[in-house]
Design goal:
Blueprint (H helix, E strand, L loop, with lengths): L1 E5 L5 H11 L6 H17 L10 E2 L5 H8 L2 H7 L4 E7 L4 E2 L3 E3 H6 L7 H8 L10 E7 L3 E8 L4 E9 L5 E8 L5 E5 L2 E6 L1 H9 L4 E7 L13 H4 L16 E5 L5 E6 L11
Parallel strand pairs: 4-11, 10-12
Antiparallel strand pairs: 1-5, 1-13, 2-3, 3-12, 6-7, 7-14, 8-9, 10-11
Helix pairs in contact: 1-2
Length: 276
């Protein structure tokens, strides 16, 4: 698979450390250093981008889809208390908070000529998406009890744990996906993509410049996840989603597919009791 790392954002040593740990590609540190310097110069030469293109209102033709999305309990839990609405954003002026993507995965997120319905459902799904899992409950020597789950969906997480004592004692765990809806936060006229980076890159790679998403208006800088330093996210070299398609601004490299492992393990031990 192909990964793409944005250049000219962080110190060169950070880029070299990232590549040394993440890629199987052979690279010349001096070449990376020169490309980082060239990318920084190009970012500075294009000038500070003060605002993103305005969000386009949600089309009336997509009203039924919007109603189904907004009726989902997940949507209501995430956005009922915020100044959120649905809209179309211009991917060419959308800022990214992520310095790296799995470009192969992003490109394969959509068919070569995606339909309007495919784009809507991928960016703003109306129903929960199934996740392919493997693993199960394991025992070792009759002592170790654990549940191990593996998946290539890196957005799959443990979202809740409950202890039920009404009928015996039962402990249950709930699993969900994060970044379900493509979400943009607006800070001082600039639109930052909070969730859905791979889908945004995938759409732009397919030649589609408009993305349906949830738009949270009037956000503060502190509401933008700090995957990059503030002086990068809000400074003159702030990165765009489109930079992942500019060979002058990213380093393409081989990247092995990742697998997320979630392991819930039972530990039992005895300790001294200290009366209160």
């Amino acid at each position: 698979m192909e990964g793409r790392y944005l250049l000219g954002l962080l110190p060169v040593e950070r880029a070299l450390t990232f590549l040394a740990r993440q890629t199987t590609s052979v690279f010349d540190p001096e070449d990376v250093r020169a490309r980082c310097e060239a990318a920084l110069a190009k970012r500075l030469s294009r000038g500070a981008i003060e605002r993103s293109a305005p969000v386009e209102p949600w089309p009336e033709a997509f009203r039924e889809h919007a109603e189904r999305v907004q009726a989902r309990p997940l949507y209501q839990r995430l956005f009922s208390s915020s100044n959120a609405s649905l809209g179309l954003v211009d991917l060419r002026s959308l800022f990214t908070i992520q310095p790296h993507v799995n470009f192969t995965y992003a490109e394969q997120s959509f068919s070569r000529e995606p339909t309007v319905q495919e784009v809507l459902e991928k960016c703003l799904p109306t129903t929960p998406k199934s996740t392919e899992l493997w693993g199960g409950v394991t025992h070792r020597q009759g002592e170790d009890l654990a549940c191990t789950l593996c998946t290539t969906d890196l957005n799959f997480v443990v979202s809740e744990a409950k202890l039920d004592t009404n009928n015996g004692t039962h402990l249950s765990f709930t699993f969900n996906r994060v970044s379900v809806f493509c979400q943009v936060v607006e800070v001082n006229g600039c639109l930052y993509l909070k969730d859905g980076t791979h889908r945004a890159v995938g759409l732009l790679a397919r030649g589609i410049t408009k993305m349906p998403c949830v738009v949270v208006r009037g956000a503060r800088e502190s509401q933008v996840p700090d995957h990059l330093p503030p002086d990068v996210l809000f400074g003159p070299t702030r990165p765009l989603i489109a930079d992942f398609l500019d060979p002058d601004l990213h380093f393409a490299h081989e990247w092995a597919e990742r697998v997320k492992v979630i392991r819930i393990r039972v530990d039992e031990f005895v300790m001294p009791h200290r009366p209160t």
